[in-house]
Specification:
CATH class of the largest domain: Mainly Alpha
Structural class: alpha+beta
Number of domains: 2
CATH topology of the largest domain: Multidrug efflux transporter AcrB transmembrane fold
Low-confidence stretches: none
Number of strands: 6
Shape: elongated
Mean pLDDT: 79
Largest sheet: 4 strands, antiparallel
Helix content: 55-70%
Number of helices: 16
Length: 414
């Protein structure tokens, strides 16, 4: 989509502009907003008079959000993502209360062997494995073919294997559901919340068990699947963040200077961190959640951090490039940094603000959706853009450039 947008911008857009000619400004609304540039200019001059004070005030405003970031937690939202009135969510809640989560969300172990599962020696090895599983403190039960009638001997099991249809009906069902061609299913029931870290630890412990000779074990089920998903997200997230930060720094340094690139990187990171803190406040702590119709939860959806990081950094970089390009043009023409900052912000501020408002309206509408992850994405992107377009671009950027002085363009002049 980005590539298509760029191609359209350098081919279709110029063609349309030429075709429209003077008609382009026929219904122009800009005069109605003519005071915007003057207001931005006034605000910028005030910031440049007290840059250090403005820096402290903005950081103080963002601190309540930033200090909540250590409480940021991620998980997998399944039925929790649905609104309260969803029938499937109500049904699942009733089943959890009635049957218990241990029965609904067992940890499944698929045991595979190259020997017939019904052989007594094979079943003895399987029984030894299950006894090892049962010794874990949070395991409250195990369902397996060797637990159908655990007191029977080898002859009885051989008879069952030849004619399982002679078993009573409940035992027949257990047998059919737990035995396949060279495989058997072991269902581990636990007293743990399937989304908890302790349940993930139990999955790791079960995978660390030494399988009996001739057996191969595969641990799966809902608990294991969610554990694997979160582990994959946590393993890849640092690499994604490093790639985004590195690319942002390199591009800004190539276009401007190392000092401005570092400043842009730090400010972009500040807006994203503050956004994560707001997500914690609203969706984990429940502050203002009722206004969005959101339900506070101990964690946010695991896809949220990476998605918001990439989108927010991309938008922030766009605004940074627009703003710094105008400031550098004005500085080259005037040689006066303060005048260049005022002019650059006044000229680009309306474009940045208009673009930010469009994104806030579009993504902010997601925040009133009925699905929890959609709410989090909409609120997060809208908050990140709002912070970036106001506190960051209009206040912190000019304050830091004023404090940096001629070092903004080091090691080369603008």
């Amino acid at each position: 989509m980005v590539i298509l947008s760029v191609l359209a911008g350098v081919t279709l857009l110029p063609a349309l502009l030429v075709w429209m000619g003077d008609r382009l400004d026929r219904w122009r609304l800009a005069p109605a907003f003519g005071g915007g540039e003057r207001l931005i200019g006034v605000v910028t001059r005030v910031v440049l008079q007290r840059p250090f004070l403005v820096l402290l005030l903005v950081l103080a405003c963002l601190w309540p959000a930033v200090e909540r970031v250590p409480a940021f937690r991620v998980g997998v939202l399944d039925s929790d993502a649905l609104p309260v009135q969803a029938e499937s969510k109500y049904a699942l809640g009733r089943m959890e209360k009635t049957l218990g989560t241990s029965r609904l969300y067992p940890i499944d172990i698929l045991a595979e062997t190259d020997r017939p599962v019904g052989e007594w020696s094979t079943l003895q090895k399987l029984d030894a494995l299950i006894r090892a599983v049962e010794r874990h403190p949070h395991v409250v039960g195990v369902e397996s073919v060797v637990r159908v009638v655990p007191s029977w001997n080898a002859t009885d099991y051989a008879r069952i294997w030849r004619a399982p249809e002679r078993l009573p009906e409940p035992w027949q069902q257990l047998w059919r559901h737990h035995v396949g061609d060279g495989v058997t299913l072991i269902r581990v029931l636990t007293d743990l919340d399937p989304k908890s870290e302790a349940a993930g630890d139990l999955v790791r412990q079960l995978r660390a068990l030494d399988p009996p000779e001739g057996w191969t074990l595969w641990v799966g089920g809902k608990t294991a699947a969610e554990h694997d998903f979160l582990q994959k997200i946590r393993a890849r997230a640092p690499a994604v963040a490093a790639a985004v930060l590195t690319l942002t720094f390199v591009l800004l340094m190539t276009a401007f200077s190392p000092v401005l690139a570092l400043k842009g990187l730090l400010l972009n990171a500040l807006s994203v961190v503050a956004t994560f803190g707001l997500l914690v406040a609203v969706f984990q702590e429940g502050i203002g959640a009722e206004w969005l119709g959101a339900q506070p939860h101990p964690f946010l959806d695991a896809s949220i951090p990476v998605f918001i990081l990439c989108v927010a950094f991309g938008l922030s970089m766009d605004y940074e490039v627009f703003l710094l390009a105008r400031i550098r043009e004005a500085y080259r023409r005037t040689g006066n940094l303060q005048r260049a900052i005022v002019e650059g912000l006044a000229k680009s501020g309306r474009i940045v603000t208009s673009a930010a408002l469009i994104i806030i309206v579009i993504t902010g509408s997601f925040a009133v959706a009925g699905i929890q992850p959609v709410k989090q994405i909409g609120f997060g992107i809208a908050a990140a853009v709002a912070i970036d377009a106001t506190l960051i671009r209009l206040l912190l950027v000019p304050a830091l450039m004023k404090l940096a002085g001629r070092w903004n363009w080091w090691p080369h002049p603008a």
